[in-house]
Amino acid sequence: MSSPVASRFVGSAVHRKEDRRLLTGHGQYVADASAPRMVHAAFLRSDVAKARLNSVNIEAAKAAPGVVAVFLWSDFHEKFGEAWHAMLGQELVVPPPLAITDVRYVGDPIALVVATSRALAEDACGLIEVEYEPEQATVDYATAAADSNVVHAAWGLPSNVMVAVPFTPMSADLDETFGSVEHVVETTIVQNRYLCVPMETRGVLASWTPGLEELDLIVATQSVHETRNFFARYLGLDEGAVRVTARDVGGGFGQKMFVFREECAVVLATKLLGRPVKWIEDRLENLISAGHSRNELGHVRMAISADGVIEAITVDHVADVGAYTPCPAVMDPTLLPGPYRIPRLGFSTQMVWTNTMGKAAYRGPWMFETTAREMAIDVAARQIGMDPAELRRRNLLSLPELPFTSPGGKVFQEITPLETLEQALGMLGYDEFRKEQAAAREQGRWLGVGICVYVEPTSMEQSTLGTEGATIRIESSGKVVAFLSTTSHGQSIETTMAQIIADDLGVSYDDVTVVQADTQSTPYGPGTGGSRTAVIAGGAAHDAAVAVRDKVLGIAAHMMEAAPEDLEIAEGVVAVRGTPDRSLTIKEVATQAYTNAHTLPVEMAGGLEATIRFKPKRFPTWSNATHVCVVEIDPDTFIPRILRYIVSEDCGKMINPQVVEGQIFGGVVQGLGGVLYEDFRYDQDGNPQTTTFLDYLLPTTGEAPKIEIGHIESVSTTNPGGFKGMGEGGAIGAHAAVANAVGDALAHLGVNVTSTPLGPEQIFQLVQATKKERA
Amino acid sequence: MKPSQFQHHAPEQIDEVVGLLAEYGDDAKVLAGGQSLIPMMALRMAAYPHLVDIARVASLSTISASAGAVRVGAMVRQSRAERDASVAKVPLLAKAIPHIGHFQIRSRGTVGGSIAHADPASELPAVALALDARIEATGPGGVRHIDASEFFLSTWQTALDDGEILSAVEFPLWGANSGFAVEEIARRKGDFALIGALAGVTLDGARVARACITMIGVGSTPIRCHDAEAALIAGGADTDLDDIGRIAAAPLTPADDVHASAEYRQHVSPAIVRRALTAALKEARS
């Protein structure tokens, strides 16, 4: 393949192709779609965390105005087949579409009402009489493993342990190290339960056409192709009989990566009714039943030498996966040492079931390794009396010493942990801040700084995730259409991929249209998630564009009686290098390729189209960043406020700096939200306590700090563009940075912050407890 | 999250409103902005087959100032009151309104609707209580007035009789050398306050001639802190305001919720009172 032309669009903040429709309210979401004879679905959900279903009486609901059908499990039984995702494997089955004999969390769907409007469907839900026989729910995941109340007792399971990995030393001399170092630091880090909360809730318009025997789905998903494959298996259809599209998706953050049981129920309903059924989840449903995240704890031990060298780190980790987990993605313990030169590692891990909503993936699903390590490092710094920036500085990897193989088996290269730390500290003026902090404390003000350094494994290889595809076609008009395997849900994919393609083809950015999220026109893709688009989809877009470019050059060379290697393309014109008056427009080449293809030499097939799948040279593509946060806590009210937020990041070459920074902004706000505002709570009986936005507090524009961003660019060699993924990093780094800032602000009072959330109530309790301890 | 079916009535005269309330009794509810009612109906925490929308009753949307008071019609939107020249003569009301939700909410929410809803964490019931406002109620028997001190019975419970509508609120004017302040602890801008204090003072030299202190979010109604007011009046403008705050907080029995414990609310109350009084005194001196 020939080398690409000089970059014109890659690297610049071109206007986003998505902006016109999204900013003017013309995005097309599931709620905007309709179909002839469409009816609306609502679920009756359990309001008990654990109970036998003695009876469910639907007679009144069936007779209610506008009701088309009321479905129970018995209506769906034996009407569907296999219910697994290729990425997660055949063992992890999507739970039954409706409860069978018992309910296992508040929100567990019991019945599906289909009516001529959503309001009437909700009216009818209110007429269903359920007789529950409540049982003791298991809610506290820290003690669930030993709890004799078993969440899945109805399946005959003996305990609440889904997965248990006993303590595994990854280094032979782990115990000796802990026995011989100057400092052993032990702490238990607890991260609270918070959620993806996409702006668009889940939703599907499912249309089964009898006679054609085809299923059409418009769905809020991160993966149209895996949704198609799932439902082909589920209904025993050929893949070609299932079409899945998602024109715009209002956020996913991992929640919409896999098919949910509710979507299964709606698909079965359209199949049984033979008419389109639409389900638009409301916010209450989304908060209680669309997949919960974080909610992990780890007992961390660190062995530290007298001069602050971290010699070993271990974790005993427990994660709550709820009752039915849509995606059991928890901490990757082998990533615990992170971007540090820590030579020894050990871990145990446990995933336990509880009578709560199940675990779903959320932007950096493995990220508890960062929270656990970075919060533990601050605990260690306080304990050994070393500045937390200095403790990190002494242990962080830097670019010149790479590649480095971690005790968890990770091979780090092309990352800049120490470099980003220094840049971020410089942006803050760290030493000056420490002076300002000391002066503030004299005046009774509580100021603190928190640091978080992490590596982000992007573009991973697991099962389906290793490749993406692209079909690029120059049409007979000379305009370009790119069919990509991605399912954008807010990543500006149309923009960034068009930038790459325009550069590689030598055409205008405005002449490239990107088509995605349609299973009948785009190449297979595993789904957009895992920070994979820039590297893998970008690689596919590049390779396909280069292949099409070569076809343009081949045909143009024939037309101009020149050698292809003497030609260049710029701004839509093919010219002989050094002889610009010998040129053709791409449109002229396209006319030849399509309209006069019969006049081409036999070895030239005509058309200007190529389909390519791309696989990076290595997995994963590492990126990294350092976050630094400054907070001030009001000593009267215990309200924390962020004064400064700094990110120094390295995502390699940036396709579009504005898109990169947008990803950082969004991720950081989610991460700080999980510390300062968001906290999904259950009471001891498993009743959710934060079921509206009145109680589940999202950070809004008013709470978002100004986020200052510094870039360090170490180019990746896993892909032709030199890109690295970075979509999840903001949410990974912000949690510990903010928690550590709160911890630092309270350190002089003797408070040791080890858990989140950290709202005014928690800060008040920490301060009071320390006062009592010291009294 | 769709309300159950209801019939929307849009009368244009207050007599019609009263007539509809009499006709439908407990099945009817007054819609006066809907910023609390409609979400409660959408969540199916409340269901009313008849909503009597008072937005088209012109007489309920007037603001008038007399020598001693400003009368605000029930249907006056909070956003209008926020900018109204007459309302500006009631500084505590003007200062409280920006704390209500967000501007979109204030564009629909009304002064009377908020006071009749009587949420103990809301600002406007506390303003009415702090300023000794008079609530004007219109019912089948005509118009009567209820003192704010008698109006708020419990969470969402008022002294309005069945079939009565809150038609206006009269806010008395305070004299010269007065100052007012609203201090709140809210997790986010626009949230219901975890706890809040509204304060007003009139100075006569170093003497405090008049004082009001009202707290929100600490009980089932807004709470007027009479002992603290008396202590401030007795002690004068140079009293240790932390002491006043402690006197105000002592009798409070706040409740727990997901955002804050009773213990937290109790603990931070004195400081919030101190801050409100500090600001009010500063304004009174200026």
Q: How are the elements arranged and paired?
A:
The complex is a heterodimer of chains A (775) and B (286).
Chain A (H helix, E strand, L loop, with lengths): L18 H5 L15 E7 L5 E7 L1 H4 L4 E5 L1 H4 L7 E2 L3 E5 L8 E2 L5 E7 L2 H8 L3 E6 L6 H4 L16 E9 L4 H7 L2 E12 L8 E7 L4 E6 L4 H12 L6 E4 L15 H13 L3 E4 L2 H7 L3 E12 L5 E13 L22 E9 L14 H17 L3 H6 L10 E2 L5 E2 L4 H12 L1 H13 L3 E13 L9 E7 L5 E5 L8 H13 L6 E4 L17 H28 L6 E4 L2 E4 L2 E7 H9 L14 E6 L6 E13 L6 E11 L6 H20 L30 E5 L17 H18 L13 H15 L1
Chain B lengths: L6 E3 L4 H11 L3 E4 L5 H6 L7 E4 L9 E3 L3 E5 L4 H6 L7 H6 L6 H6 L2 H7 L5 H8 L3 E6 L2 E6 H4 E3 L2 E2 L6 E8 L5 E8 L9 E10 L2 E10 L6 E2 L1 H10 L5 H9 L12 H24 L1
Parallel strand pairs in B: 1-3, 2-3
Antiparallel strand pairs in B: 4-5, 5-10, 6-7, 6-10, 8-9, 11-12, 12-13, 13-14
Helix pairs in contact in B: 6-7, 9-10, 10-11
Plain-language structure description:
The complex is a heterodimer of chains A (775) and B (286). Chain A is an alpha+beta fold and 775 residues long. Chain A contains 19 helices and 30 strands. Chain A folds into three domains: 19-26 and 462-614, Aldehyde Oxidoreductase, domain 4 (2-Layer Sandwich); 33-135 and 199-251 and 256-289, Aldehyde oxidase/xanthine dehydrogenase, a/b hammerhead (Aldehyde Oxidoreductase, domain 3), CATH 3.90.1170.50; 396-403 and 411-459 and 620-775, Aldehyde oxidase/xanthine dehydrogenase, molybdopterin binding domain (Aldehyde Oxidoreductase, domain 4). In chain A, 28% of the residues lie in helices and 26% in strands. The longest helix of chain A has 28 residues, at 533-560. The model of chain A is unreliable at 1-5 (pLDDT under 50). Chain B has three domains: 7-53, Uridine Diphospho-n-acetylenolpyruvylglucosamine Reductase, domain 2, CATH 3.30.43.10; 60-172, 2-Layer Sandwich (Uridine Diphospho-n-acetylenolpyruvylglucosamine Reductase, domain 3), CATH 3.30.465; 178-285, 2-Layer Sandwich (Enolase-like, domain 1), CATH 3.30.390. Chain B is 34% helix and 26% strand. Chain B contains eleven helices and 14 strands. Chain B is globular, with a radius of gyration of 19 Å. Classes of the chains: A alpha+beta (775), B alpha+beta (286). Chain A binds chain B through residues 117-119, 122-123, 126, 282-284, 636-639, 677, 681, 689-690, 692, 694-695, 697, 699-700, 702-703, 759-761, 764-765, 768, and chain B through 1-5, 39, 43-44, 185, 187-192, 194, 258-261, 263-264, 267-268, 271-272, 275.
